[in-house]
Specification:
Number of domains of chain A: 1
Order of helices and strands of chain B: EEEEEEEEEEE
Distance between the termini of chain B: 35 Å
Radius of gyration of chain B: 13 Å
CATH architecture of chain B: Sandwich
Structural class of chain B: mainly beta
CATH superfamily of chain B: Immunoglobulins
CATH topology of chain B: Immunoglobulin-like
Order of helices and strands of chain A: EEEEEEEEEEE
Largest interface: A-B, 23 and 27 residues
Number of helices of chain A: 0
CATH topology of chain A: Immunoglobulin-like
Shape of chain B: globular
Number of helices of chain B: 0
Oligomer: heterodimer
CATH architecture of chain A: Sandwich
Chain lengths: 113, 112
């Protein structure tokens, strides 16, 4: 059974600081996704990581994937208040020709001014 | 640009009642999914569909059923609602199996 674990679950950080969110998964997968969710809103796709060693950056966020370690990281550089949200990673799992996305429990990020 | 539309956006439902949550996409995506989101548990897959005419069970399928009569629609039915089904429900779709998923705005369901 594929399990996806994120840590930390909660993160409170000062503006201007750097931090990393970790996403570990339990079985082989070459694809990992990061989403952002604002309170009461839907999920917004941030990054799609499709191969080992993939690195993508958008603004102050950078995501990477190490499929051998079954680990993805979401690095936040010089955090600003607008980054406050819940961040989810997800891995897709193929079963009998069907892909299912399994999500981590999320990391709730609060950036303090 | 609509993308994925869910209805209703919120609902209060008496226990034991039947309820169908609607989901429509206009992106011609083959795959569609239903998730429920509960505090501390993240998103859990209820049911999914590879393509029109086929469906499959996710992590938490009990008490729910789905149908996929055509590409665009993927309704989720609660045959007899129970309070533990109080949750926020998200419908999602993807173009390719395993590709990026796009989410609807969610349905907040309260079963009393």
């Amino acid at each position: 059974e594929l399990k996806v674990e994120q840590n930390p679950l909660f993160l409170s950080m000062q503006e201007g600081k750097n931090y990393t969110i970790y996403c570990n998964y339990s079985t082989t997968s070459d694809r990992l996704y990061w989403y952002r969710q604002d309170p009461g809103k839907s999920l917004e796709s941030l990054f799609v990581l499709l191969s080992n060693g993939a690195v993508k950056q958008e603004g102050r966020l950078m995501a990477s994937l190490d499929t051998k370690a079954r680990l993805s990281t979401l690095h936040i550089t010089a955090a600003v208040h607008d980054l406050s949200a819940t961040y989810f990673c997800a891995v897709d799992m193929a079963t009998s020709g069907t892909y299912k996305y399994i999500f981590g429990t999320g990391t709730r990020l609060k950036v303090l001014a | 640009i609509a993308g994925i539309t869910q209805a209703p956006t919120s609902q209060i439902l008496a226990a034991g009642r039947r309820m169908t949550l609607r989901c429509t996409q206009d992106m011609r995506h083959n795959a569609m999914y239903w998730y429920r989101q509960d505090l501390g548990l993240g998103l859990r897959l209820i049911h999914y569909s590879n393509t029109a005419g086929t469906t499959g069970k996710g992590e938490v399928p009990d008490g729910y059923s789905v149908s996929r009569a055509n590409t665009d629609d993927f309704p989720l039915t609660l045959a007899s609602a129970v309070p533990s089904q109080t949750s926020v429900y998200f419908c999602a779709s993807s173009a390719l199996m395993g590709g990026e998923a796009f989410f609807g705005q969610g349905t907040r369901l309260t079963v009393v």
